Backbone:
C-alpha cells in the first residue's frame, strides 16, 4: 500500500503532463528555428560561391577570346605586309613586261593583293571593335566579381558567427529537452513525437484560438472546450490529431468572462427546456 501511494504521489497529473509537453514543444520549436536559420545560410554561401566561380570562369573565357583576337590581328597585319610586298613586286615587274597580256596578268595580281589588304584591314577593325567590347565586358564582370567576393566573405563570417552561437544554444536546448523528456511517460512522449513529425509546422500541442484548434483552425464544440479547460484528460483534435490545451496553460491570457459565458448560456437554455 505504501509503495502504491508513493507511486501515485510521483505520477504527474494530466495538467502537469500537458504543461511538460507544451514546454518540450517550445524547446523543440526553438531548435527547429535554429536549424532553419543555419540551413539557409550555407545555401546562401553556396550560391555566392557558385556565382563567384561562374564570374571567374566567364572572365577567363573572355580573356582567352581577347588573346585569340589579338593573335588574329597580328596574323592579318603580317598578311597585309606580305600583300604590300607582292604589290610592289608586281608593279616593278610591270615596268619590264613585253606585251599587254603580261601587263594585264600583273594588274590582276595587284588588284587581288590590294583587295586582300582591304579585307585584312576590315577584319582588323572588326577584331579591334570586338576586343574593345570584350574588355568592357571584362571590366563589368570584374566589378561584379569583386562585389560578390565581398558578399561571400561577409556571408561566410556571418555563417561562422551564427553557427558558433546557435551551436551552443542548440546544445543547451537539447540538454533541457532531454531532461524534460524523462519526466513524460514513454507512450505519451512517443505519441507526441509522432504527431509532431506528421504535422506540417512541427506542432504536436496547440492551444484553443477563437473556439478553434490552433493547428488546423477547425471549430471545437463548446463542451469539448470546457473539457480542455478542465485539464482532466488529454484531448486531441478530431480533424488534425494534435493535442489541444487551453490558452492559459500555454501562457496566453484571455478574458475569462468571455470564455465562461458560453457554458453558462447552455446551462440556462437547458433549464428552460426542463
Residues:
Amino acid at each position: 500500500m505504501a509503495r502504491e501511494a508513493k507511486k501515485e504521489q510521483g505520477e504527474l497529473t494530466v495538467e502537469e503532463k500537458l504543461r511538460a509537453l507544451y514546454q518540450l514543444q517550445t524547446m523543440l520549436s526553438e531548435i527547429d528555428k535554429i536549424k532553419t536559420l543555419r540551413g539557409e545560410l550555407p545555401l546562401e554561401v553556396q550560391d555566392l560561391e557558385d556565382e563567384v566561380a561562374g564570374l571567374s570562369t566567364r572572365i577567363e573565357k573572355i580573356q582567352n577570346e581577347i588573346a585569340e583576337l589579338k593573335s588574329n590581328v597580328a596574323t592579318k597585319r603580317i598578311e597585309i605586309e606580305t600583300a604590300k610586298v607582292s604589290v610592289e613586286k608586281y608593279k616593278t615587274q610591270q615596268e619590264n613586261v613585253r606585251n599587254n597580256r603580261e601587263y594585264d596578268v600583273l594588274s590582276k595580281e595587284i588588284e587581288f593583293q590590294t583587295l586582300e589588304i582591304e579585307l585584312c584591314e576590315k577584319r582588323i577593325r572588326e577584331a579591334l571593335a570586338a576586343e574593345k567590347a570584350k574588355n568592357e565586358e571584362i571590366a563589368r564582370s570584374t566589378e561584379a566579381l569583386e562585389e560578390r567576393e565581398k558578399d561571400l566573405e561577409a556571408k561566410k563570417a556571418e555563417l561562422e558567427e551564427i553557427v558558433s552561437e546557435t551551436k551552443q544554444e542548440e546544445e543547451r536546448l537539447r540538454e533541457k529537452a532531454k531532461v524534460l523528456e524523462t519526466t513524460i511517460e514513454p507512450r505519451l512522449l512517443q505519441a507526441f513525437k509522432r504527431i509532431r513529425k506528421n504535422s506540417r509546422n512541427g506542432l504536436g500541442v496547440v492551444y484553443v484560438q477563437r473556439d478553434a484548434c490552433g493547428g488546423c483552425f477547425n471549430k471545437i464544440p463548446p463542451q469539448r472546450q470546457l473539457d480542455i479547460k478542465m485539464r482532466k484528460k488529454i484531448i486531441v483534435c478530431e480533424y488534425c490529431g494534435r493535442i489541444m490545451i487551453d490558452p492559459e496553460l500555454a501562457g496566453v491570457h484571455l478574458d475569462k468572462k468571455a470564455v465562461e459565458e458560453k457554458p453558462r448560456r447552455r446551462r440556462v437554455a437547458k433549464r428552460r427546456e426542463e
